[in-house]
Amino acid sequence: xxxxxxxxxxxxxxxxxxxxxxxxxxxxxxxxxxxxxxxxxxxxxxxxxxxxxxxxxxxxxxxxxxxxxxxxxxxxxxxxxxxxxxxxxxxxxxxxxxxxxxxxxxxxxxxxxxxxxxxxxxxxxxxxxxxxxxxxxxxxxxxxxxxxxxxxxxxxxxxxxxxxxxxxxxxxxxxxxxxxxxxxxxxxxxxxxxxxxxxxxxxxxxxxxxxxxxxxxxxxxxxxxxxxxxxxxxxxxxxxxxxxxxxxxxxxxxxxxxxxxxxxxxxxxxxxxxxxxxxxxxxxxxxxxxxxxxxxxxxxxxxxxxxxxxxxxxxxxxxxxxxxxxxxxxxxxxxxxxxxxxxx
Length: 344
Prior knowledge:
- The chain has about 350 residues and is an alpha/beta fold.
- It folds into two domains: about 5-220, Alpha-Beta Complex (Spore Coat Polysaccharide Biosynthesis Protein SpsA, Chain A); about 230-310.
- The chain has helices at about 15-30, 45-50, 65-75, 100-105, 175-180, 195-205, 230-245, 255-275, 275-305, 320-325, and strands at about 5-10, 30-40, 55-60, 80-85, 90, 110-120, 120-125, 135, 140-145, 145, 150, 160-165, 170-175, 210-220, 315.
- The mean pLDDT is about 95.
């Protein structure tokens, strides 16, 4: 058994497994065990793995638990020091694991990600993580290399290893003990943004999150839900509000939530004006779901607050990324003022 386990969650993803799993095994098995956690697939995924790549270890979930619970249940059966939660639609490269693990060990990093480029435009950063995630004063998230829909081309400008606020769940390296110590992924999220919540919980205990520019993977994106999907819009708006209630522990949370709900409302009206009625409805449903689950999230907030110690806010952008992007036209991460980020 290796100290690293690459763990892929699968649900009816046979096509992606055929395309990418052989490369994962080829470029990982020298220093990692490769697992597939299967969420009760019905597309012959597991029989194909057994017949074609028998060295892959398979963990069976009895039903489709979704992303968060699927990983939580499956990882209970993996005995390694480091987990790599890898999406099934990710193409890895030669030597992609050692630089990240070395960086984590040398710098005391608890969770990290490699550089994530777009599989379909391989010189451009990909939406889900790019070269590390950040968060602004209103809880909006963005990345080095991708702010909203502005995707930078990779010229090596973000190759340095750096501490960030969150690391992408598309290729998330994390210490196994820390994963379990903070309760794993929040199963009430089902999918989307649960890795940001996980990273914030880690940071509220003083742990460090990083991005390693010496390792590269390529992400297709939209492997489970397409990039343009009302249900994904619902999850992102709802889960972003969940994250704030659970993890933002300043006294002005009520004011922050009020501003966020107003900004979300503006986004919903914009969807409606563009004829995207299904997206307008998705935002409305996200807010209704948020109100319905508010007491639950508040209880989680109280439990998490009791365990906070040495809060780490590195990667927190003290300004509004909406203002910086839409009004001040700062579409590149390098356009943002370094002094406007927390560094300790």
